[in-house]
Amino acid sequence: MNIPADAVIATDKLTGYLLIARPLDDKSKFLASAGFTQSNFEILEAAIRNLATVAPAEEDGRNDYGIFWRVSGRLQGPTGTLQVVTVWLQWHLDGRFRFITLKPLRK
Description:
Distance between the termini: 23 Å
Structural class: alpha+beta
Low-confidence stretches: none
Helix content: 25-40%
Shape: globular
Largest sheet: 4 strands, antiparallel
Protein backbone atom coordinates (compact mmCIF):
# COMPACT_ATOMS: atom_id res chain seq x y z
CA MET A 1 0.00 0.00 0.00
CA ASN A 2 1.11 3.57 -0.65
CA ILE A 3 0.11 6.84 0.96
CA PRO A 4 -2.45 8.59 -1.29
CA ALA A 5 -1.30 11.58 -3.33
CA ASP A 6 -3.92 13.79 -1.65
CA ALA A 7 -2.57 13.16 1.87
CA VAL A 8 -2.50 16.25 4.08
CA ILE A 9 0.89 17.85 4.77
CA ALA A 10 0.38 20.94 6.90
CA THR A 11 2.64 23.82 5.87
CA ASP A 12 3.14 24.67 9.55
CA LYS A 13 4.54 21.17 10.14
CA LEU A 14 7.31 22.02 7.67
CA THR A 15 7.92 25.71 8.37
CA GLY A 16 7.10 25.78 12.08
CA TYR A 17 8.62 22.48 13.14
CA LEU A 18 10.87 20.52 10.77
CA LEU A 19 12.78 23.48 9.32
CA ILE A 20 13.18 25.40 12.61
CA ALA A 21 16.27 24.94 14.80
CA ARG A 22 15.20 23.42 18.11
CA PRO A 23 17.18 22.66 21.27
CA LEU A 24 15.78 19.10 21.37
CA ASP A 25 15.01 16.76 18.49
CA ASP A 26 16.27 19.25 15.89
CA LYS A 27 15.66 18.09 12.34
CA SER A 28 16.51 21.35 10.57
CA LYS A 29 20.27 20.69 10.38
CA PHE A 30 19.67 17.18 9.06
CA LEU A 31 17.33 18.53 6.37
CA ALA A 32 19.67 21.43 5.55
CA SER A 33 22.39 18.91 4.70
CA ALA A 34 20.34 18.06 1.58
CA GLY A 35 19.45 21.69 0.82
CA PHE A 36 16.03 21.98 2.47
CA THR A 37 15.43 25.39 4.10
CA GLN A 38 12.60 27.68 5.20
CA SER A 39 12.81 29.48 1.88
CA ASN A 40 12.22 26.32 -0.17
CA PHE A 41 9.81 24.38 2.05
CA GLU A 42 7.72 23.60 -1.05
CA ILE A 43 10.57 21.43 -2.32
CA LEU A 44 10.56 19.52 0.98
CA GLU A 45 6.81 18.98 0.69
CA ALA A 46 7.18 17.70 -2.88
CA ALA A 47 10.01 15.35 -1.83
CA ILE A 48 7.94 13.94 1.05
CA ARG A 49 4.96 13.42 -1.27
CA ASN A 50 7.15 11.74 -3.87
CA LEU A 51 8.63 9.33 -1.33
CA ALA A 52 5.18 8.54 0.09
CA THR A 53 3.70 7.70 -3.31
CA VAL A 54 6.57 5.50 -4.53
CA ALA A 55 7.67 3.64 -1.38
CA PRO A 56 5.39 1.15 0.37
CA ALA A 57 3.75 2.13 3.65
CA GLU A 58 3.97 -0.26 6.58
CA GLU A 59 1.47 -0.23 9.42
CA ASP A 60 3.19 1.01 12.57
CA GLY A 61 0.52 0.95 15.27
CA ARG A 62 -2.96 2.09 16.15
CA ASN A 63 -4.56 4.31 18.74
CA ASP A 64 -7.85 6.14 19.31
CA TYR A 65 -7.04 8.58 16.50
CA GLY A 66 -6.31 6.06 13.77
CA ILE A 67 -3.66 3.93 12.13
CA PHE A 68 -0.03 4.99 11.98
CA TRP A 69 1.93 4.23 8.82
CA ARG A 70 5.68 4.36 8.25
CA VAL A 71 7.34 5.01 4.89
CA SER A 72 11.12 4.65 4.62
CA GLY A 73 13.39 5.62 1.78
CA ARG A 74 15.42 8.29 0.03
CA LEU A 75 14.35 11.92 0.27
CA GLN A 76 15.83 13.84 -2.67
CA GLY A 77 16.80 17.41 -1.82
CA PRO A 78 18.22 20.27 -3.89
CA THR A 79 21.81 19.39 -2.93
CA GLY A 80 21.70 15.81 -1.69
CA THR A 81 19.77 12.74 -0.65
CA LEU A 82 18.74 11.69 2.84
CA GLN A 83 17.64 8.31 4.15
CA VAL A 84 14.48 8.98 6.18
CA VAL A 85 11.45 7.47 7.83
CA THR A 86 8.20 9.40 7.44
CA VAL A 87 5.28 8.86 9.79
CA TRP A 88 1.66 9.25 8.72
CA LEU A 89 -1.69 8.94 10.51
CA GLN A 90 -4.79 7.63 8.79
CA TRP A 91 -7.45 9.43 10.79
CA HIS A 92 -10.37 7.24 11.99
CA LEU A 93 -12.88 10.09 11.62
CA ASP A 94 -12.50 10.65 7.89
CA GLY A 95 -10.01 8.03 6.66
CA ARG A 96 -7.64 10.73 5.34
CA PHE A 97 -3.89 10.46 5.71
CA ARG A 98 -1.94 13.19 7.50
CA PHE A 99 1.81 13.65 7.65
CA ILE A 100 3.09 13.54 11.23
CA THR A 101 6.88 13.80 11.01
CA LEU A 102 10.10 12.51 9.53
CA LYS A 103 13.33 11.36 11.09
CA PRO A 104 16.68 10.02 9.92
CA LEU A 105 16.62 6.33 9.03
CA ARG A 106 18.63 4.39 11.59
CA LYS A 107 19.93 1.03 10.45
